[in-house]
Amino acid sequence: MITLQKNNLAFKASIHIFIWLVLCTMPYFLSSTEAPAFGKMLKYSWVPMLFYALIFYLNYFVLIEKLLFHKKTVYYSIINLALIILCTWVIYEVKHLINTMYPMLKPPGSLNPGHKPSLKLFIYKDTLSLIIPIAVSIAVTVTEKWTRTEFEKKEAVSENLNSELQHLRYQLHPHFFFNSLNNIYVLIDRSPAMAQEAVHSLAQLMRYMLYDTESGLTSVSKEMEFMTQYINLMKLRVSDKTTVHTDFPALTQDCKIAPLLFISFIENAFKHGISATHPSELLFSLTVKDNTIRFSAQNTNFPKTSKDKSGSGIDLSNIKKRLQLLYPDSYIFETKVDGEVFKVTLTIDLNTN
User: Fold this and answer.
1) Are 211 and 89 in a shared domain?
2) What DSSP element (H or E) covers 242?
3) Where do runs of H (alpha helix) occur along 31-72?
């Protein structure tokens, strides 16, 4: 960050130097005759530019920030008016001195080489021209402040995004671990060998969640492998009345996505879609086509009451929040209850990210 600020400061300084060099040398390049004499450049270009720069940087570094941005407009106007009057008088006297040093620059029709230029000319020309650097300094400072404010807003949004995603991720992990431990607990008495296999599977899944997802992106194929292992682990605790189907075909096109996007839907399907007394059916599918991912989960709908704490799921509002943070305006999230079947569909267009 410090290096970036230094580079930005050096770039701004280079731009300022370049602009002033262009302004000071422009009369030389735009002259229709031979190269203008030193006295002429001094009188008509360099002296005015010196005072333009003085007024510009007094406003740029001090007056605008200290007065104008603090709504002290009257003080700001009075100080700038005094600066214009003072600079006008100094320029007037300096040009008179230059006329004395370079008689060939005397005003037309003047018999006295030291004749002062017309005061009225300064009022209508030099005085008014001194307003230009004030206006330019205001425009530049306001633009820079707006740009800086927008950058800081984006930084704040980005930091908030990372914080929210980390919070949601930490929220997801306990849910997953809690459900998995419940599954293993059920298996310990019924089939110790299956429980041992489930512990091994859980270790692999937790390794994926803790390490393979640290980069913030994972491949769809790895995510499908993770979901398949998780579903197999969940199937160990269900009865023969429950049928679980998966449709995760081999991918012809793999791509990167945010990890653990779909596991919440699977968790909720097992939570709300299984009954101990009625036949239950769960179906999970995922397809990737033209860089668009479509995941679908449907289950027989057995919604739990607020008093039923068996299992644990992730609230849909948190899922939507995470999607909006990760893929703003690039996803379609639909839920539908069709008779006794609850269906959720998530489509993500990766082309817009």
Assistant:
1) no
2) strand 242-247
3) 38-41, 47-58, 64-66
Distance CA 176, CA 209 (A): 10
- Whether residues 181 and 125 fall in one domain: no
Torsion of CA 102, 107, 111, 112, to 10 degrees: -50
User: Six-digit token pair at 348?
Assistant: 């993500």
Of 255 and 39, the structure prediction assigns the larger pLDDT to 255
- The string over 198-216, giving b where at least 16 C-beta atoms fall within 10 Å of a residue's C-beta and e elsewhere, is beebbeebeebbeeebeee
Which of the two residues, 48 and 12, has the higher pLDDT score? 48
The verdict on residue 240 lying in a domain is: yes
Q: Is residue 146 part of a domain?
A: no
Residues 125 and 197 grouped into a single domain: no
Residues 106 and 219 occupy one common structural domain: no
d(CA 12, CA 38): 30
* Calpha distance 167→349 (Å, rounded): 24
**Quick one: 206 and 295 in the same domain?**
yes
- Using 50, 70 and 90 to split pLDDT, how confident is the model at 170? low
Q: Which residues pair with 246 in a beta bridge?
A: 284
Is 78 within a domain?
yes
DSSP 114: T
Which range of residues forms the domain containing residue 267?
Answer: 162-352
119 and 167 inside one domain: no
| Domain match, 59 and 171 both | no
| Residue 346 resides in a domain | yes
Contact 300, 271 (CB under 8 A): no
pLDDT tens, residue by residue, 84-130: 889 888 888 888 787 777 766 555 544 454 455 555 655 667 777 88
State pTM to two decimals.
0.54
Q: For the chain, give the mean pLDDT.
A: 79
Residues 122 and 170 in one domain: no
Specify the pLDDT at position 111: 45
Q: Any idea how long the chain is?
A: 353
Total count of domains within the chain: 2
- Burial code (b: 16+ CB inside 10 Å, e: under 16) for 87-99 equals bbeebbebbeebb
Band of pLDDT at residue 77, cut at 50, 70 and 90 = very high
Structure tokens, 279? 């036949």
